[in-house]
Specification:
Layout lengths: L9 H4 L2 H14 L3 H11 L7 E5 L5 H9 L3 E6 L5 H11 L5 E5 L12 E7 L8 H10 L1 E10 L3 H10 L1 H6 L10 H10 L3 E7 L3 E7 L1
The structure holds S-adenosylmethionine.
């Protein structure tokens, strides 16, 4: 996807209010299920590396926890600037600001926004982007060692729910849509980029997959 047709209006959906809610939840109960699983795999030595690239990292809570767990440096790329203020406050509070870089951009339309990292992760991001293959290919190309992808299962009830999730962005005039991409397409994009699937877990709503180079 070229910059000419990159989706617009993500800021209207992923905004400051959502960021504040996410930060309150993080303060109350820590990471949500899928990033928490990635953190556990890192702590258990199932995945490793010194550098982390998170695409669609939201408030950047995973970066903070991964640095505390042993990652050396992290980059967080997000298309929306709506999370930036909250992310900066959390990072400053953690005392880890010098080790995380935050960048704004669509990884597909603006490939220069991020270089390679040992570990590349996308939690609930593939479902937010129209071209799953392009996004996963761009992420996989940057993964020196591991790629973690967590995305919704392709069940009938998930597909049925998608139009409901999309009422709000339509009303707000945003291009953002919740999408249930076929898992086979997501996996094929990663394996075609030279990675192999080494772990697959199923949660109630999502797949959590690990690929290695
Ligand atoms: C549903 S949020 C998930 C946030 C976080 N990963 C979490 O699990 O809480 C998806 C985020 O991905 C970002 N995003 C979607 N496609 C992207 C792309 N191609 N490049 C960079 N960010 C993207 C959106 O802006 C949004 O902030």
């Amino acid at each position: 996807m070229s910059a000419c047709c990159e989706p617009q209006g993500y800021e209207k959906v992923f905004d400051h209010r959502g960021a504040r809610r996410a930060a309150a939840r993080y303060a109350r109960s820590g990471l949500t299920t899928l990033p928490q699983r990635t953190l556990e795999l890192y702590r258990d030595g199932v995945i490793h590396g010194e550098t982390l690239l998170e695409i669609g990292g939201g408030i950047g809570d995973l970066e903070i926890e991964m640095l505390r767990a042993g990652i050396d440096r992290a980059v967080c790329v997000d298309m929306s600037t709506g999370y930036d203020a909250v992310a900066a406050r959390l990072l400053a509070g953690s005392g880890l600001a010098g080790r995380v870089e935050r960048r704004t951009g669509d990884l597909v339309a603006h490939p220069d926004v991020a270089g390679p990292a040992d570990l590349v992760v996308l939690h609930s991001v593939v479902c937010c982007y129209p071209d799953a293959r392009a996004l996963v290919t761009a992420a996989a190309d940057r993964a020196r060692q591991y790629l973690v992808l967590a995305f919704p299962k392709n069940t009938w009830w998930m597909r049925a729910a998608a139009p409901l999730f999309n009422v709000y962005p339509r009303l707000r005039g945003s291009d953002w849509r919740f999408r249930v991409h076929p898992p086979a397409d997501v996996v094929a994009a990663a394996t075609d980029a030279g990675l192999r699937e080494v772990r697959s877990e199923r949660f109630v709503f999502d797949h959590h997959l690990v690929f290695a180079r």
